[in-house]
Batch of 2 targets.
Target 1
Amino acid sequence: MQFSDLPLDHRLLKTLALKNFDEPTKIQQQAIPHAMLGKDLIASSKTGSGKTLAFLLPAVHRVLKTKAISRKDPRVLILAPTRELAKQVFLQLKWVISGQPLSAVLILGGENFNDQVKSLRRNPQFVVGTAGRVADHVDGKSLFLNGLELLVLDEADRMLDLGFAKELRQINRAADHRKRQTMMFSATLDSAELHQLTEELLNAPHRISIGSANEQHLDISQRFYLADHIEHKEALLERLLRDESYQQLIIFTATRADTERLSAKLVSNGYHSVALSADLTQSQRSNIMNGFSRGQEQILVTTDVASRGLDLLNVSLVINFDLPKLADEYVHRVGRTGRAGNKGQAISLVGPKDWPSFVNVKSFLQQDIEFSEIEGIAAKFSGLKPKSNKKSAKPNTKSAKNSAQNPVKKGGRKRVNTMEGKEVGHIPMKRKPRQAAE
């Protein structure tokens, strides 16, 4: 199938052709025709499969081809879990609507609220934002959603993980138009909480699933190395950086402190590295990501804040210095490489503290995993044995003896036993009367 085979507006087809987008991905082939019918949709596919265009193209087509329900309210609202992912979606939307008489606004937490109010007063057709800040504008009556025609939830599972269920329900109530279309897109859509939200927000949705979250990504080779401790991890990392070939590299760590410490160490060793974490301001994070995307830095050390949505085609290597706690987050991390048909590598370092996470990842991927070794710095650590929950079967002889001598049922009643063919235990016990005090 070609994009030209889809019933998209000719202006969109021209924009796609200018960027040499000829053949839609599998998720685009299946999602776009259903989305264009105006029906609710749930779609899942592996990271890097082109989900963003799968909802942007039918959304823009709708705005171009149909009359607005309301002249003041936005027609399309796209929600993302993080500021980075929202910004990525917004940039791709700006490219899709370039040259068209359409406008879009980006609404993010951590940025000037009043400036956003001014932007919303210009009546944009598209609003892209994070759920928390969009809910703030709904509360402040600077954003009205009565005439909203399309609500898109990108990475809906992640929004729930971050605690935005209340805000999503608030936005749903504010945009409760009977003709509203709702679409959910994510790499994973199998949690119980998400299923409940789906029942509330969507109306008889069509479901599309391309592969599964734990399906092996053929464009990404994966390796695992055992490590004894953090100093051993640093030694392994130093050797990997020296021996592996890569254009750009993302290193994932567990904490903000680790990102700063590790990045500073790499800089001192002569590498062009920068640290990114959620504790930075929005402008700081934007500057870091813009510089990295332009190739000013070769290595990005980050927490899971950069594990989703970022489309960085020059990232050919991902290293998990620490494994994530959630197994599906591992999929999103390694999905930062091997995008758009490019080949990528994912390397994970597994120490004693990472072992429970490794067990979860292995179970989630349903793949046999063998550990690699680097000559001269192999680990002594070989994994942890699972804890046994079985109690000792050794009988308590003292308790057994007491029970035999005093067979009592619950409630203090004597058990009925047999001895020499006669029942005992029913004879009431008579207390010896007290002697009267002299």
Note: Residues 397-401, 407-430 have pLDDT under 50 and may be disordered.
Target 2
Amino acid sequence: MWDRIKDQATRGLQQAQGARGGSGGHGPSGARSGGGSRAELVSALKVQLTSLKTELKSGAFRDASMAMCALVAAADGRIDPSERRHVESLILTNDVLQNFPADQLRQRFNKHVDQLSAGFVMGKATVLQEVAKVAKKPAEARAVIQTGIVVAGADGYIEPAEEQIIREACAALGLSAAEFGI
């Protein structure tokens, strides 16, 4: 699975760089090194997202990304305060999400976590609707999924419940989970 994510990240990075007229010395070779460790794969997705940073400034992307982060954080049906703080810190240090004021990110993330905490099944349906709002913008839709994978894999492992929630988000966006190796 990790090799497929790495290959997808590398292809996306190459496409993004090609659309900008070349790599500018920042080719995807780093994404290929190391034989596919989880940290390198998450790093490759971060690089890919960063290459699209100037294009990922819409409010819909912000809101869908915060919804995706909340879904990943609560993927097992619960979220403890330390996990909430951990994901919030990942959000606030994410290069692409720094396009937005920290207070906006915090507010939206916490709103979605609260919805999921109040009732996971109903909350999940509502939060997935927020994710689906970027479905008509393929670059943003893929970036939302990639953001979810980066957050899920930040600890070096993607839990089965996190993989499942990412698959559900892919379905809500009309994307194939296989595209992301999930």
Note: Residues 12-35 have pLDDT under 50 and may be disordered.
